[in-house]
Design a protein that fits this description.
- 64% of the residues lie in helices and 0% in strands.
- The protein contains three helices and no strands.
- Helix 2 (40-60) packs antiparallel against helix 3.
Length: 92
């Protein structure tokens, strides 16, 4: 097998001009969409329901093998509620 060196000339300007509309439309389509958030009252009510549910489960599981899991669930619900309230743009 013999190696033969050769040169390829690519018209980069033409390639860029041909691809530009596709690239621009792909970039515009890839912009992140605005996050839809729940209204504050709905979010606080949901968080309160989660904490109440977790507390009820914890009370029911006192003295059982499920107590540790129920306590973890209660702590997660409470910390999630606290984090949500701390991150409010306009605190209560």
């Amino acid at each position: 097998m013999t190696e033969v060196p050769f040169t390829i000339l690519l018209p980069l300007d033409e390639i860029v001009d041909a691809l530009r509309p596709d690239v621009v439309s792909a970039v515009l389509a890839a912009k992140p969409k605005k996050i839809q958030r729940k209204p504050l009252t709905e979010a606080v009510l949901d968080a309160s329901r989660q904490v109440a549910s977790a507390f009820t489960r914890y009370e029911a599981s006192l003295g059982t093998r499920d107590e540790a899991r129920a306590l973890k669930r209660l702590l997660v619900a409470a910390s999630g509620t606290r984090a949500a309230i701390k991150n409010l743009a306009k605190p209560l």
